[in-house]
Amino acid sequence: MREIIHAQDSYAKNSKPMNKLQRLKTLLALIAIASTVPGCLPPDKIEDNVPTAINLEESTQTIQDYLKNQPPETTPIRIGVTQDKTSSLEANRVKRLSLEKLDPLLEFIGKNGGELAYLRACNDSNMPMSRVKISQPPRLDDQDLLALTLPTKPDENANPLFAHEGEEQRQKERETFKEGFEHNSAIIAAHEEAIKDWETSTQNKLNQYRQQLQTLSQQPLDCPATDIYGAIQRNSLFFQEDTSIWTKKPQDWIIFITDGLHNTANQKANFPQDTNVLLVNGGTTVGVFKDIEHQSFEAPTAAIDYVLHNAK
Hints:
Blueprint: H1 2-14, H2 20-36, H3 43-49, H4 56-68, E1 77-84, H5 88-91, H6 103-112, E2 114-121, E3 130-134, H7 163-217, H8 228-239, E4 251-257, E5 276-280, E6 295-297, H9 300-310
Parallel strand pairs: 1-2, 1-4, 4-5, 5-6
Antiparallel strand pairs: 2-3
Helix pairs in contact: 2-4, 2-7, 6-7
């Protein structure tokens, strides 16, 4: 056991600092070895003999630090992007969106959680949107962890006649501590695994969505008219969906790339309240958006940068 300790001490002096999970694994391994291998130090002696960086008290602090050092809880975003596909766009000097320009938004959602919904505005715009939803990153709840109490040290002034009773009590405390530490370490290890699974699932979803957008961009549209109100109605349905699946209220953003000219029979529609409407427009005409509160942008990338800068 002393060789293990000295090896660990030498390693700590000649290598990079361990991260929180590595330290937890090291602590658990040392406690397990000390508890099971004949001739090794008993758990109450580990605290006195293992270097300070890896003793029992440090083990409880490491778990507490793991919770404190979690990334802050993220705020998801929901963003609807609508591209006007009618020919009047060029006449009114509105710059079209290249779908690969959506990548920064997808990367943001891939880190923080949220949903992106893309729609092509045509003569009938009230059509299903192309969507991708990413859950927020997993977080460890401190309520899942057990509160640990360090085993008491032997009382040097205790009556020798009662030493056996004291040792029995300390042994129970050591066993309780070890069980609690193993429980907490298992919870943290499962959390680390959940993060890996979330990262893999997120990348798969985003890659599939990029392919979906690529396929969509290759499908031609014949748009003899522009149904702006239908597009507004569809976006409104998207933003009226239940948000209880998110642990924090999402921020809602709408990007419309259009000249705003509505020339179909569909009735007037409005966006829900508390949505940030961004209009990418050439400035010659805004059409129906003259009656809709919005912020104007000259290019799609400028609107996207604005979202990323202001998303919390």
